[in-house]
Each structure stands twice: as structure tokens, then as C-alpha cells.
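User: For documentation purposes, I need each entry recorded in a consistent format: the amino acid sequence on its own, followed directly by the corresponding C-alpha cells. There are two entries in this batch. Please keep commentary to a minimum and don't merge the entries.

Assistant: Recorded as requested. Entry 1:
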Amino acid sequence: MMFSATRALWWKEYRQNRWAWILFLLLSVSLTFKQDPSAQRTETTWSDQLSAMITGEYHSLYGYILPLHQSALLAALLWGVWLMAAERFPNTYSFLASFPVNRTQIFHSKFFFGVLVVLTAMTINLAGFLLLKLVLPVKYTAYEALGWFLYCTPLLIALFSLGFFAASWTGNVISGAGAALALSVAPVVLETVIAELFYRNPVAMALPSLLTDRLFLYSYLWRYIQEAQWWDPLFLLLFSVILFRISRALFLRNAMERNGQILQWGFTRH
């Protein structure tokens, strides 16, 4: 019975959000290829930009190229917001509560479906890179492509988790998106405030570097190029697990229905 209910919830997520996850896939998989007109022509010249993106190496024309396009980062963040908050508009949370499923099953189906879509997008990217290597001469290796996948996938999952967390305590998509964007840049704002207020305190000044180095998720794109560490993906996954557990606690505590409130604080009614 529990398996049938879980399968039904996954099917509902797939059908209800099909346009949203298709849009996410398109934003995450799209790549652009540009040529350096001054570069010496070789059989691998066409892959210069792609290779620089995967390996983090310097490109003669475009400099350092980020391993992920900014659209993929924003898409992952808003994808998390959408999965949680969009359900409040038609008030279908109350409808789901009338079925033989509990809140934990509803929450898990949403979160893990969202993570699966992120994994699918990145797997498509990785498969494309490996397929190109099989049929065309490229500068990157299969090992480097796999390293790109293992580093960037946890980053997108962390951004998805952050959006999901923001939507767990806001009342609609707009407020959830605003909260998610604010949280994503909050470490930089806090760094500036702390640096201004406690610039003479050596203990307090150690906090800003922690905020921007670890909690400012966008900085991991530059870390990939300049100083990536093997534990970075592990930290991002741990960060996602923490947000998952906090979001679940909030979801189980808050009212399912949307009554016009901006924040979803309070005790459950179902």
C-alpha cells in the first residue's frame, strides 16, 4: 500500500510539473560553442571552449570559463522553489492530505523527484561529453568529464535544496523565489556587515571568509577553476542534507493550505 501511494505521488509530480522540469533540463543542458579566430587550427580546436569549461583551464580568447552557465544555477534554485510553493496556489496540499498518504511521503516525493531531475540533467550533460569524445577529437579526457560531473552536480543539488528550503516557510512562488535569492547572496552581505562592524576583532574577522568560502554557493564555480578541493562536493552534499532535514521539519509543522499569509509558520492542522 505504501509503495503504491509513493509511486502515485511520484507520478503526480511528473505530470503536474512536466513543463517546469522540461524547462529546467533545457536551461541546464544548453551549451554554446565559440571559436577563437586567432587560434592555430587543429582537429581539436572546435572543443577549446568546452574543454576549458570542463577542465577549468585558461582559454586564450575567453579567459577562464565557469564550469556551469549561470542559467543552470538560477534554474536549480527556482526549481526547488517551484516544486514546493506551486502546490499552494491551487491549494492541492489539502487535497493530498485527504488521500491515504502522510506528510512525510508527500515531502519525500517532492524533494527526491526534484533531485532526480537535477541528476538527470547532469547525466545528460556527462553523456553528451563522453559521446563527443567517442566520435570526435576533443582536448578533455573522460576522467576530467567525470570530475566535472562529480563536482558540479552537488552544487546544483545544494542550490535546489536552498530553494526548496526557502519555499517551505513562504506562502507562494514569488515570496519563495525572493527568499531563495536573498538567502543565496546573504553570505556576501553578512561578510560586508561584519567586516565593517568588527574590522579590528581578529576572531570576528575569521567569520566572513567562512561565509563566502563555504556558504556562498556561487563561489564554488570559481573554486573549481582556482582552488577546488576534493571535499567541496562532500560539503555541498552535507549542506543539502541539513537543508533537507530542516525543510522537512518545517513542512511537517506548518499548515498545508495557503490562506494568503507570506510565511508558513505555525502548527499543523491535518
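Entry 2:
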Amino acid sequence: MPLTRDPSTKGRGSGPEMRASGTESGRGRRFYPSPTVPKPFSDPFREPGYNPADPSAGGRARMSHIPAVNALITAINFDRFAEIEARHRPDAVFQSFRGPTLRDAVSIADWHREFLRDYQDCNYADLEYIEEGNTVAVRATIEAKGYDWRPFTQRVIEVFEFESHDEEEVARRRLYATLRDITLDKPATAALNDALGYRGGSPSQTRQVVKAFYDALLAGDREAAAAQLSAKATVIDGVYGVATGPENVLGLFASIPMPAFGKLRVTNLLAGDHMAMVELAIDPARPRYADWVRLVDGKIQVIEGYAMLRELGINPYENYAHDRHPRRAILPI
């Protein structure tokens, strides 16, 4: 049955003029909905959030931003550049491991055109989410093909920030990454698999443990930091290597070079049931590191380290040409 609108209500929104005529038995019903024009590329529905009611929203239940994030990731996977632009605010800010810092949606769409030329058949896999307030952190593994169509994987953390609880356009976005094709030894793989299978914990406990660890780590208190680590603690850093065991983990963090001026600080912390995402920087305007922390039984088991590679002085456009195609002299027999 087609939906129509009462002409007498023209120019007014939904309210008393939203009426129905007829009865349910024998005769049809006519509804007069409000003339709402959907946004371009907007989702046909929004999944209800599981967070409690937001006081700033007038008692309304907060809507989850994860569907909007998934829609943007899908647009990237399928090279939909117009949709990528539409899903960012016109004045959106995007900071990535490849650089540079972009400050408008058009430039962000153009950046993805170049990015997807270098990452052919790009696919975000193994997605994990942490949502807190108007911020969503996603840990993913990018599966793609390089300049020579050889497949590679690269682990990334993306942070999406929205202006309000009902906003669907991304306002700020940060993309951290590791180097490509990281391989793990048996102890690190066992610790990671153990953490992936854990399903307990609570956000409040996770925040308390992670905050205590980073406060002690940045203050140089190794004993207090080690108290928050499990016996199988492992760090998987995309730049500085892999270490297993509390003492080795703390030793690796101590070996990371720091600039002559400034002090590393925590700029953002999102906590889930048994996972947390921590951003660290010397200057908050220039993101530097992001860690994806996994807990088991109230102790930190795995820390995955990601970075703004360009901020560290690492070439993010490395194509591994010399590694994969070594030139060898052909000698006579």
C-alpha cells in the first residue's frame, strides 16, 4: 500500500499531523510520514547500541558508530572513492602512517586512490573493535598485493572519532601500522592464541590494569610495571621486534630510542572487556605510537605495537624490490 501525506500538513514536521485513516479490519490504513531526506550513502538502518542512555542525548539510547565504521571500511575494500569522501565530514582530519596530514574529505578520497594503487585487492580482515563514547578503535590485518602482485599482510590500528552520538560522518581519523609480513616465533604465537581465546574481563578492570602499567612504564618504575604483566607476557612490535617474558618485554620498551627533547605520554585510552587501545605521543598534535593490549585473567598478556612510520623516519613506501628480486650474476659453467 503506498504511503501518502496529508496536504494540509505541508511544511510541518512529524507530530500531530502524522495521522492514519481507516481501520485494520476490512479497510486499509494510510500513513503520512515526515518528509525526511536521507544523507548520501547513509545506512538503511542503524544498529541499536548496547551502551546505557547518554545524558547529553536527552535520555535517548546512544547509537553505535560501528555500522558507520564498517560502511567506510567496505567502501575502501571496494574502491568506492565517492563514498569514502561522503563518509567523512568536509573538514575531516586524517593522519596516517604514510602521511601527510589531510584536512578535508576531498584530499582523503584522493589519498585513498593512491593508497589502493599500492595496495591492490585491499581487504581489511580479522577486525576487532573497541568503542567508547564517540570513538571507535579498529584493529585489522590488511591483505593486499604489491607492485608485483605478490600478496602481503600488514597489521593496522585505525581510530575513528565522531562529533556526536548520532553522527555518521567521521570527523577525525588516525591510521597506525606495522611493517609488512611480520612472523612470530612459537612462544609469541602461543601467547597470542591464548589471549585471542580469552572471553572474560570488564572495561573498568581493563582500564585500571592498563593505566597502571603505562603510568609505571613511563615513570620508569619497572617493578610496578612488571606487576601488571602475566608470566607469558609478549610484545609484538612492528618496528622494534618481538619479545617474550616480563623482563624481556620491559627491556624492549627501554631500548626504544626517544628524541632528545620531550617526553612520551598517553594521549588516548579506550578499554573493552579484555582489550584496550592506547595512543602515545610526545606532541599530541603528532601521533606517534598506538598499542593494542590484550588481557588474560586481569594481567597483560600481549602488547601489539603500531606506529606512524613516517613520524619515526621509516620509509612507508618500501616495496621490497631488492628483497624479493635479488640480482645475481650469471656465471659461465
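Summary note for entry 2:
The longest helix spans residues 203-219.
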